Request: fold
Amino acid sequence: MVETKESKTGLLERLRNSIPQEWILSLKAPEPRRIFLSVKREHFKEAMTKMLKDEEITHLSTITGVDLGEEIEVIYHLDKSGTILSVKTTTPKSQPTLPTVTDLIPGAPLYEREVHELLGVAFDGHPDLSRLVLPEGWPPGLYPLRREISIENIRSALEKAKEEKKVG
Amino acid sequence: MDEERVIIPIGPQHPALKEPMNFMLKVEGEKVLEAIPNLGYNHRGIEKAATVRTYIQNLYLAERICGICSIAHVQCYAQGVEKLLEMEIPPRAQYVRLILSELNRLHSHLLWVGVAAHEIGFDTLFMYLWRDREIVMDTLELITGNRVSYGFTMLGGVRRDISPDMAARVKKEMKTVRDRTQYYKKMSSNERSILKRTQGVGILKPQDALALCACGPTLRASNIKWDVRREDPYLAYNEIPFNVVTSDGCDVLSRMIVHYDEVIEATNIIEYALDHMPSGSFREKVTRRIPAGEVVSRVEAPRGEDIHYIKSNGTDKPERFKVRAPTLGNIPAVCKMLSDSYIADVPIILAGIDPCFSCTDRVTFVKGEMGKGWIWTQEELRRYANRWYQQR
Reply:
């Protein structure tokens, strides 16, 4: 379950000791200065709060959302002294929700809005999940970065929305 | 709503601009109370487009994410894919890429200081800086054959080598750029009209810069010594001596000084790299299929940390390609800077984070009820700002 390669900062060791085993799905450092930590959804917020506090992490580089098919994986790329700690968690695609981290990281709101808009993950407790990057009049419920949505789907949905606007 | 409280939308766009954007400013009299960003006017769906293109096609797509820091994006993408391939590019290729990255930083920084000078009505400095930027553009053209999108970085190395003749000419040009930048820096730190418009304007305190996850020169001008080239070295940055420039003023003037100093540092880095270039090949062949895996890659783009996430499923097309350009990382910081500033300072504060847009081009002022609005262009806002300062 735990795989090591190298981590000069000792961050990998500390995480292994500080985060309870039952919260962790996997923890690995595939190359220097890169750590991937996958945590269970129900312990995600707790783990995040603990890590940010213990390691005094303030920098969130970005949040990536990936459609895995049945689930949506959300990856938080944190920076600890030059090491990117990518914290992963998943949420079911049928009803994707995750607790927000905006209360822990003031720089996070825009990244969460982006994931919400492109993949449809609702972040509980986010102050404002309004439109961010997609145009006004974008068909609601069409999440362009989901796997089943092809570029043709997007094109036809947009044309349809345009027609409806003309009629209405 | 209070009689005195007004909402001013700034932006979104002008067709000629690279990244249009809109800010809703809540103002009371001359004071900005709050700034609410509104992004996406130039969202092109590159992340989706990348998943239906091959890794080689995506090189060109990545280069076109931005017209200014094109080298930074293509470098970030290429180094990510090379990590998936578990390959090291030849040492000479690393040096050539490093030199190009720094030339990219040079022209971007000179462009920015020029824009900043223009925003405060100092067009003479703008002209001088953009003239000198042409030296760098010519150098880039000399090495790559192109001015803007270079098509120079390949998976496994670079397309062409830097010959000794080229190296000699680049070194000569670097001296010119450095000497002139030193003069501009000295002038900018003492010139009264620049000081009046930039000192104490757009304050971003160090603790706010950290909390809002700012990056790049914006962060370093708030006296935080953090640079991807030092913290998470890529290419040959751990073999080359350079300073991470900071400034403690936390204002627009500090941002200007950091940019000047980084230009000077970049010219030194380029000279050192040209002198210490290892010999050997400058590219290696790579396979079209990329092994399954995931990688987080980042570089210090001219505007700050640029981070890419690439997930491969073992085919010749990526499953997911995620890009976070530095400007997005600095948006919360610029909103912080705008709050509690004057309307007249809005153009220079917006320009202050060196955004990949200079977009305060159409400003609508709406006072009180609907219908009592008027529209200002960026030019008018700039004139208003300059007049406002003259009368103070």
